[in-house]
Amino acid sequence: MPFTKNFRTPGQLTGIARGAFDAEFERFRVSGLLPAVENFTLDYSFNVGSAPLPPAAKFRAFNAESMVNRLGTGQTAKGSLPPTSIRMHVDEYTQLKLMGQDDAIGQKFEQYAIANAQSIAFRIIIAAAQAIVDGKITLAERGLQLDIDFGRKAGLKANAATVWSNTAASLPISDLEALRNVLGKRVSQTILSRVTLGYLQRNVDLMKLILGKGSDLPSRVSSDDVISFLGSEGFGQVVVDEDTVPDTTGTEVPLFAADKVILISGSQVGTTEIGVTTEAIESENGIGNSDAPGLFSGAIASSDPSGYDVYVGGILLPTLTSPDNTAVLDAF
Asked: Which InterPro entries did the record assign (predicted)?
């Protein structure tokens, strides 16, 4: 695929696209839980279920041989990173209208490269959120059929015994404690929605625990009261996530559905693998092997009528390498 050097070179547009992707991706909570890493191959791998850890070392007597270490014996799953690409057209009329203005067409190329890179970031963010909530990623679009199950323990997806919208009868702390027991690890972070927080503020059982009395309750307690209490009960940093992201139709949707309460153990549960595109390793595009992993961007000249397509592509996928460090409660 020939990329023009008119107005902006592939190297210039690639740098702009990568910067735009990073800026967009890093705005969202999933970038900390599944940070982006360079992958010089087309492959991904993960350990199904808990990431297997090596055993603790043993002390030894002086002059005794060292213990031979080994990695854990969990099942490993492998696959190939899927491609994504998107383009935007600079048409004949736009070219003529901008011609003669200082660098106006080049700036249009940059604008389109940024928008395309943001679109790719949005899709990766949605996939990362799906991995965290469902323990798997399902891709069924543009000829791709891919179902990647990270093997999370079944008990780490649960339903509230009584929906939390029933604020008079539900027992949120009991539900959360039961899920934490299945997780079996320290909870570092609890993610919930503003809607869920509102139910907790009005929950009768929770208000009794927070206020230390069984009667003469107010209609609600403050959000700070709820967040502080959950933290004191060992549910880590309580985060009210109100992020929205455009889906593939352009409609803004919540990153995490309002009824999901997510428990996280640790600071990182996986990675977002960013591989190498064929365009990046073609010498005429001027990227270089050491910079090959990441998005690629360039402009493609077209004719009849004359125009350009500003293209951004990547080979990338979030992978949940510690799926048993996530647990999800359907609260209502």
From this structure: Major_capsid_GpE (IPR005564)
